[in-house]
Amino acid sequence: xxxxxxxxxxxxxxxxxxxxxxxxxxxxxxxxxxxxxxxxxxxxxxxxxxxxxxxxxxxxxxxxxxxxxxxxxxxxxxxxxxxxxxxxxxxxxxxxxxxxxxxxxxxxxxxxxxxxxxxxxxxxxxxxxxxxxxxxxxxxxxxxxxxxxxxxxxxxxxxxxxxxxxxxxxxxxxxxxxxxxxxxxxxxxxxxxxxxxxxxxxxxxxxxxxxxxxxxxxxxxxxxxxxxxxxxxxxxxxxxxxxxxxxxxxxxxxxxxxxxxxxxxxxxxxxxxxxxxxxxxxxxxxxxxxxxxxxxxxxxxxxxxxxxxxxxxxxxxxxxxxxxxxxxxxxxxxxxxxxxxxxxxxxxxxxxxxxxxxxxxxxxxxxxxxxxxxxxxxxxxxxxxxxxxxxxxxxxxxxxxxxxxxxxxxxxxxxxxxxxxxxxxxxxxxxxxxxxxxxxxxxxxxxxxxxxxxxxxxxxxxxxxxxxxxxxxxxxxxxxxxxxxxxxxxxxxxxxxxxxxxxxxxxxxxxxxxxxxxxxxxxxxxxxxxxxxxxxxxxxxxxxxxxxxxxxxxxxxxxxxxxxxxxxxxxxxxxxxxxxxxxxxxxxxxxxxxxxxxxxxxxxxxxxxxxxxxxxxxxxxxxxxxxxxxxxxxxxxxxxxxxxxxxxxxxxxxxxxxxxxxxxxxxxxxxxxxxxxxxxxxxxxxxxxxxxxxxxxxxxxxxxxxxxxxxxxxxxxxxxxxxxxxxxxxxxx
Length: 733
What we know:
Helix content is 4%, strand content 42%. The chain is mainly β. The protein has a five-stranded mixed beta sheet with strand order 5-4-1-6-7, with no helix packed on it. Strand 43 and strand 44 form a beta hairpin.
């Protein structure tokens, strides 16, 4: 590939051979090579490129004799000749004859220069509780040598290894020693390509250069000492405080195939493992947790690939249970069970005033907390499904029992409180009276007095005026409930009852003095005087619903007959009002109208027509419903029998005069006195006087007639004056 240059010295003369070819003189001879023509030949150097590679033929023949061939230029990749080559040229040493010329072939050999790679492998020291490293056998380590540039054959000039091509992979012996000889000169890279599990592969790419420095050195060594770091895992077992190691936990480390790699019981120091496979995932499992701690969930961890310590911290948390009310106060006496997802009972306890530590639970798993029995005065809590969290913190599971709170209202239809009612609440499950009380404007509160799933009876022992008694009410306290008060409303329906006092025509009758007497006790509970209000008198708030009373008229109004005692029971409600109608019959009395002569009062006149009117001007009707229009009889009397219509409820008027009398158009009131007794033998008497009509005298004309008429006129005038005087006298009487 590269040329070698030689000089030829005559041994006998000690002079170097010079050959003139044309105008040029040559004293150095260069072999044919691929690169010889790329550079300018030094002066005096002969080069014949038509010759075979690695060959040079002198342009001229030499004389027979002994010659010393000296190498003045050694080709790259080879060492120089240690000694010049002596050649004897004579006829007997002719190697070949071509074209009549004799040739002496001389072969000169150079030793080739190589590189040698020496590696010493070492493993770092680490004190571990468990080491999986076999430091006595490092033969599992592998190195790969690759060409960093094209590696050229110094003989042929061809590329032995292209840049990037692997030259070879080698393993050290058990002691970690590796030597690779006869590596062609050039630039290489060395990389560790494999290590046993537990060692950190050295990822550094080493430059390895085998460079010829001189023509004498046949071997160029490169020595490397490479130290491998080991994988290191430090496992800490602690509680959530992180203060020191938690002793007594049984732990096991397994590989991805589920094979146990290491197992131990935690102590006072972290546990270290050397030699786990770098980059691999392992699991740390707690098989038994220390007393009072939840078993931690299995931890997966991957071993650091850089040789640093892989810290693994497993925390055992404390799982405690707190039974509280809605205000966070501990509730003792609750019976609680803890079951896993398969229904196995993990813990069974009764709550106290301190938190209960749960044993046997495991982080990451879900458990059901069930209240078998709640303390009296508290609701049961709903079942709680709780997952033990993997957060490295102690976990308090709080189950709240809400206090049972009830408010009992006694109200009417309008939602207003009904005070004064006697109530009793009885626990029918345990047959125990819880409380008896009298209602007021506020509800009765029961806090922690009732028991979940017990049935209660609320009874009204005594009620008050104005309402009906309520039917007994039962209710059951549910198993679960909120902290809010449960409202129980006991309704007393409002009384709706009125007393309507009317006459026999249904017209309101005012003025009657009435009493309401409780039948059972004989006590007068209310007295009132009837009015003319057509709605009657409302007695709702003075009587009790469903109670029987006697309605008594202590004094009837004037003109009316009193009624007998009436017994009634209060049943009226807002939905169905009760109206008690009491009728007073109007009393009857007679009105006798006497028709008399105005001039002779003792003279009663027959045939006069009289009409009896009510005070509003309507013709009155008698007790039989007939219109009060009649004539005086032979006695000169017109008789009417009518009902009481007030003290001055009627008036009489002459509607037709008897024959020979003037019609009296005056209205004659029928007025009763307060002492009137309405007896048939004591009629109301009204006298109506009628004046007689004047008599008509026939007159005869003539003197006698005039005189007679004058005498008649004088007599009539005298009679008229006498009548007027008589009438005036009658009126005064």
